[in-house]
Amino acid sequence: MYIIDEKDKDYRFGDNGPKYLMKGPRMNFALVQFQPGQDFKAHYHNIMEENFYIIDGEIDIVVDGKVNHMTKGQFIHIEPGEVHYCINNYNAPIKIASTLAPYQKLDKVDVDDYKY
Asked: Which residues does the UniProt record annotate as the domain Cupin type-2 (predicted)?
């Protein structure tokens, strides 16, 4: 058992991106934040499934070309192999809880020049 305080961790890109509270051994758990206009590069996972729960705000999560307008309280499950892209097209920050499982050290495949 262990306890981690969110304030002791940093977002990957300063004020945005994932903030991992746990990486492995069986799953990842992160908080994700984007300011208005910010996004996260399209990618997919070969093995891991990814889940997002919207804590606050609204965001567009594009999965295999379909735009999903997500708002506070909604949950989206993304299967391995599904290309996903997140963009905050709105006027307020977004905060999301994210899980990835089963844990894999390297299982993110970037998709260049993603169009949807």
From this structure: 31-96
Secondary structure in 3-state letters for 37-69: CCEEEEEECCCCEEEEEEEECEEEEEECCEEEE
| pLDDT computed for residue 116 by the predictor | 87
Give the rounded distance of the alpha carbon of 78 from its chain centre. Answer: 10
3-state secondary structure of 31: strand
Q: Which residues of the chain have pLDDT under 70?
A: none
Please name the residue that has the structure tokens 């919207």. 54
CA max distance for the chain:
43
- For 30-105, CATH gives 2.60.120.10
Read off the pLDDT of residues 71-96 as tens digits, 9 standing for 90 and up: 999 999 999 999 999 999 999 999 99
Map tokens 């996004």 to a residue: 39
Say how many residues make up the chain. 116
What pLDDT is attached to residue 37? 97
